[in-house]
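Task: complex structure prediction.
Instruction: return structure tokens for all chains below.
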Amino acid sequence: MDIRAIESRYASGVYPKRDLVLVRGEGVYVWDEEGRCYLDATGGQGVALLGHNPPAVRAALQEQMDRLMICPEIFYNDRRAQLLEALQSILPGGRAWRIFLCNSGAEAVEAAIKFARWRTGRAEIIAARRAFHGRTMGALSATWNPTYRQPFEPLVPGFRHIPFNDIAALEVAVGPQTAAVILEPVQGEGGVWPADPAFLRAAREQCDHHGALLIFDEVQTGFGRTGRWFAAEHYGVLPDLIAMGKGMAGGFPIGATAFPADWGPLPAGAHGSTFGGNPMACVAALAVIETLHRERLIERAARLGALFQDRLHRIRSPLVREIRGLGLMVGVALRARATPILRRLMAEGVLALPAGPDVIRFLPPLIIEPEHLEQIAAALERALAEAPALVPQMEGGEG
Ligand SMILES: Cc1ncc(COP(=O)(O)O)c(C=O)c1O
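Output:
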């Protein structure tokens, strides 16, 4: 079977593909069809918080498969109830939350936008430049990158973008017409840019002042990635809505949107999803939460993230512009295009992600060991040392 040929012929084509057929995974490693092993610092695009095929998630799914696989939210379910309680115990702010369960990050953002419009009766949503919130029409309207947006215009009306970390722009933009401000506390796909604490505080103040809502998109930053359950906790800023997804169920598709319980329940029929809150996703998410607690992986993400950033700072290469990040969400901003370096890393047995044209992004599993991080850093060091021959230098660039 020529896997590449079949996918190239029949798949949608919307993904830029790497020349790699992955067939197996375990822990921080994945294997290709020829048995070659790779250290997965993409973490399955930030999903594999517990690594690949984590035993706790596998066991939970296997057990649930024998009990009940399908249970839409028009019925009550034991596992869903357990998950809602578990989410309540980890969500920030010590306040009571209600939670809408869905199947992906973009869906979680869609729900947040709808709920904010419903709650305020207003239409305007302020988002940030470089933001990435997903690719469905509502989420895409909040996403900034014109390449993703333009072919699909007109998008949902009422969205505006302001420069990230620009308090003055925020003060001008937010007003009595604003339903919500939506922000990633650490911009991921836009280049791994942690927010300035003052910017998030100002967003909270402006929203409070004008009766608007603050949405944090924690799809990439949530569930321990940054060294706290939610990145909001680093900043001491409590949003009104939180969108979650990616690693929440350790590889099983899930998304969630939390809003304050004191809103009361949303009107029946205001939103919905056939697969939302299905028991398989719920047990997988429960297993993730339990494992993150039991194995103290979040503290570990904070500790190892700092260690990794220190190590990356020791790379002596004129191509490194800046190291940015929080916990195990780390970006290396280059004075060069990221793609050739990513290819070089792959040849070294390390998989990493781009974040914009000139940033290499690492989203490794939180179970990663210091020696794996050393392996990644050493591979990057070698890739950069060979880079002048590999990549044309870029003048200027972002950041
Ligand atoms: C911050 C953020 N929001 C939303 C999304 C969209 O999530 P999904 O691809 O699951 O729809 C992503 C995906 O990368 C993301 O990083």
